[in-house]
């Protein structure tokens, strides 16, 4: 990564017993295009918040362009990348968390709540507009 680009990550690796479902939390500020090739996150979701700029993604041969204030996500085991293996100049926050599966403890929630969350994540649109106030908190 270029010295112009900034990266911060917090890898849980089960070091925080309160939230073992959150595996990785990160921040990237790309001031120039940066390589982002094919990758996946096992049985995990990834959610990316675009704080500034724009980012284009490819998932299963489909292209998605996101801009500041939008959220983008990938589902468990999905192979994804930056468009043409690059991510544009932008600032993003991202998290990788385990797939909530019915009858498996997750965030201390009741099984019926986990089931409902799983169902909603399965039909969640790939990109979502966030509340503009999210940047102010």
Structural description of this entry:
The protein is mainly β. It has one domain: Jelly Rolls (Sandwich), CATH 2.60.120.10. The protein is built from one helix and ten strands; from the N terminus they run βββββββββαβ. Strands 1, 2, 4, 5, 6, 7, 9 and 10 form an eight-stranded antiparallel sheet that branches. A two-stranded antiparallel ribbon has the order 3-8. The longest helix is centred in the last third of the chain and has 12 residues, at 111-122. The chain is globular and about 45 Å long. The two termini are 28 Å apart. The relative contact order is 0.22. The model has no long low-confidence stretch (mean pLDDT 90).
By CATH's scheme, which homologous superfamily applies? Jelly Rolls
Structural class: mainly beta
Distance between the termini: 28 Å
CATH class: Mainly Beta
Range of helix content:
under 10%
Reading the helices and strands in chain order gives EEEEEEEEEHE
Which percent range describes the beta-strand content?
A: 35-45%
CATH topology description: Jelly Rolls
Over the alpha carbons, how many angstroms does the gyration radius reach?
A: 15 Å
> What's the CATH architecture?
Sandwich
Please provide the count of β strands: 10
Global geometry: globular
Runs in which pLDDT lies below 50 for 5 or more consecutive residues are none
| Sheet of most strands | 8 strands, antiparallel
What's the domain count? Answer: 1
State mean pLDDT (0 to 100 scale): 90
């Amino acid at each position: 990564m270029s010295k112009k680009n900034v990266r911060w990550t917090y890898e849980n690796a089960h070091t925080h017993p309160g939230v073992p479902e959150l595996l990785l939390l990160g921040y990237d500020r790309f001031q120039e295009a940066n390589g982002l090739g094919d990758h996946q996150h096992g049985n995990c979701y990834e959610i990316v918040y675009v704080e500034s700029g724009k980012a284009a993604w490819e998932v299963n041969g489909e292209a998605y362009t996101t801009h500041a204030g939008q959220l983008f996500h990938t589902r468990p085991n999905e192979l994804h990348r930056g468009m043409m293996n690059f991510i544009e100049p932008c600032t993003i926050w991202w998290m990788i968390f385990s797939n909530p599966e019915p009858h498996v403890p997750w965030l201390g929630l009741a099984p019926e709540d986990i089931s409902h969350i799983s169902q909603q994540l399965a039909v969640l649109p790939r990109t979502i507009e966030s509340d503009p106030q999210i940047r102010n908190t």
